[in-house]
Amino acid sequence: METKVILEMENITKQFPGVKALSGVSLTVHEGEVLALLGENGAGKSTLIKIIAGVQPQDSGTMIFDGQERHFTDPMQAKRAGVSVVYQELTNVPLLTVAENMFINQYGDKNRVLNWKKMYAEAREILQNAGLDIDVKKLISDCNIAEKQQLEIARAVYENAKLLILDEPTSALNTREIAQLLDTIKRLKAQGMAVILITHKMDEIFPVADSVMVLRDGVTVASKPIGEATEDELISLMVGREIKNMYPPKGEVGGEVILRAEGLTNASIRDVRFELRRGEILGVYGLMGSGHLELGKTLFGCFPKTAGHVELEGRELRLTSPKACIERGVAFLPGERKDEGIVQIQTVAVNMMIPSYEKPGSPKRIDARRERQVANKWIEKLAIKTNSHQTIVETLSGGNQQKVILGKWLEIQPKVIILNEPTRGIDVGAKVEIYKILKDMCRDGVSVIMITSEMPELIGMADRALVMHEGALQCVLQRDELTENRIMSAAIGGTGNE
Amino acid sequence: MSENRKSAWGRIKSFDYLPLILAFAIIIAFFGITTNHFFALRNFMNILLYAANVGILSCTMTLILVSGNIDLSVGSVIALGGIVMGTCLNNGLPTAVAILICLLACMLTGLYNAIMITRVHVNAFITTLAGMQIFRGVAYIITNGKSITITNEAIKFIGRGYLGPIPNAVIIMLALVVLFTWIARSTVFGRRIYVIGGSSNVAFLSGIDVSKNLSLLFILNGLLCGVTTVVYCSQLGAAMPQNATGMEFDVITAVVLGGTSMSGGKGTIVGSIIGALLIGTLNNGMVMMNIQSYWQDVIGGIVLVIAVIFDIIKNRK
User: Fold this and answer.
1) Could you tell me which chain B residue has the CA closest to the CA of A391?
2) Residues A222-242: pLDDT tens digits?
């Protein structure tokens, strides 16, 4: 292939206090090439991206971008040269319109006066070219994650990016949106854009990527054309050991019914009815807006119900507040780990104790010794990698933060635990550990409601699954009916019978 | 980063307070050199007496900032509380009853702030900014702008009397500092305030009744405003509608100087007390140097800005 090299990095090294984040990493990306960048959290992917994007400089090594040796010192410089990064935390301004966000970097550049008509017209044209059907006057805060992402990509194209870096773009998307995004990537590739795609998900890499590079502990462990790689190989390269079974084996679930919902209705769900058995993992799947996320929060007392009835162990579960639900032994692992799950600036021990003090009859005084014992118990049982129980949670990796949240809920000895995207943004190794923890919990008699948008996870873990569509329960799939086709067919409003 | 579970001694050892104490030492040295009577014992008493008012208020103000809120109305509440107490005394009510009614009135303002913030969901800044106007306005209306002279001996003793060599006001402050440090560090209520300030979402989703705990905090803050009212009026010998004007400024400056984060979740009462002493010393020294009061305002403002910049730098690390 006689294509132009867009980015060439040679022998990049970056040292942080106490950690060598990157050592001797080299990579090359050509025009029209999609490079999949794999690695567990902490493997050095983010550091590498930050160097390319000018967020932080490398200690040594060279970077040639677009035929010129570059040493970006700030992100704007990199952007002007043609590097565009779409981060996990999207950077759109929520209270501005789609069009305003499109031109945010060149507001009134020439005469410092906004020409709204022209701006809307241009924005419309850009979106049309990108094949997006979004109203340019819509506020960003009214767009869903997929739309925001597509808008950022469209903006990058408009700003003449030569290299597009996508940082785990699919972690918050549903299957349909992922397909759309992969199509967009293919289209950009055909137009000659160089793309670096960071992801944990194998099924996304093979259809779009041309080459793949795996980082582990700051070192390149593999770099090859995609045709020469296999899924199992990449996973074991990433974790550094072989993972044979992602999911623990499913056991028999013969327990009695512990939770029963009848006709549960509110602003986002209607007439939802299901039963949950002791020790069972009940999966919940739905596309964006189907009410599956709201079902979880409704069962935890976050949204009031307008009709229906929920029973826990034969007694009514009053869904008035999270506190009321915790008192009955219901726990909830939220989807937004940083905003809803942990107090970032607090220690592991403080985070783990929060709900325990809200149970009826719990002490009103802080007992530092007991807190230490509790924290150390879960640090050990859940294999949390932390210096001590006094470590600030912010400094832990995503997987370990998630384990802290699991620990804080296990400490209240829950009967039912509702999980919302339990492994979002967590690397493969930690995922496997969390699956095992969940299975062990079930064996101990805890019942799990697992809301997830990752189909392999749903199929691998759930004993049964509810599929939601437009706020209603579309169907209940038994264990042997859990196939991607049936789940998707039900999620888009079909019968779930393939 | 510093963490909240360290003991006061642990913090001193690990130099958390070092910049503050250094600044304090520089200020003392500066005034000691430039003025004549700065090192007089009587002058130190003056500093302590003023710092006591700010110190009492900063016990709960620290926790309010830790919870991610703010209270700008404390100065006005003290003015209103004073007028309420003075009116009660003028109408022949027993001293204890007058004090009690004053404390209750101040707690009521705290309840009002709490309801606006936690139930009506007006943010704390706006709620207490409005409260600042309302409470002082009411104080003016009650007396038609006049002051009430406090002649009651018992009340005078509270703010001006001494227990041995130590002023009562300072003893009241120290007692409250010990009590509220204990509340902050060793009770579940205190822990909840830190968790709410760290993330009120996480607090709510972990079963903490955020509204109830914040309400309790604002009512406690009202109570300490009441205590300050008694001390303040006693020291001044009068209840006036313009009492404690700008007190909120000194208290918030003291708390921020003491290392409490404006973004919530972090802070200690001991730090705030050191901040209060620093502010007291600074105000006193500027008076001793005969610095024009307009300049005192400018310098006070600059100190707050510097404190906030330190907070920002610390958070960036």
Assistant:
1) B3
2) 898 998 988 888 877 877 765
Q: What is the pTM of this model?
A: 0.80
pLDDT given for residue B317 in this prediction = 56
Is the alpha carbon torsion for B50, B55, B56, B62 positive or negative? Answer: positive
SS3 A429: helix
Phi, psi dihedral angles at A108 (to 5 degrees): 50, 40
Residues in chain B whose beta carbon is closer than 8 A to a beta carbon of chain A?
1, 3-5, 185-192, 194-195, 198-199, 201-209, 265-266
- Contact between chains at B209 and A321 (C-beta distance less than 8 A): yes
Residue B209 with chain A: CB contacts under 8 Å: 321, 323
User: Residue A496: which pLDDT band, with cuts at 50, 70 and 90?
Assistant: low
- As a whole number of angstroms, the longest Cα–Cα distance in chain A is 73
Contact B198 A365 (CB under 8 A): no
Task: Tell me the pLDDT tens digit for each residue of A276-289.
Answer: 999 999 999 987 77
Return all residues near B93 (Cβ < 8 A) that are at least 6 apart. Answer: B101
Q: Is the domain covering B8-29+45-316 a CATH 1.10.287 domain? A: no
Tokens of B190: 């205190």
Contact residues on chain B for A344, CB-CB shorter than 8 A? 198-199
Spans in chain B with pLDDT lower than 50: 1-5
Domains in chain A with CATH codes: 5-92+143-239 (3.40.50.300), 259-491 (3.40.50.300)
The identity of residue A234, as a single letter, is L
Q: What is the ipTM of this complex?
A: 0.86
Cβ distance A343 to B199 less than 8 Å, yes or no, reads yes
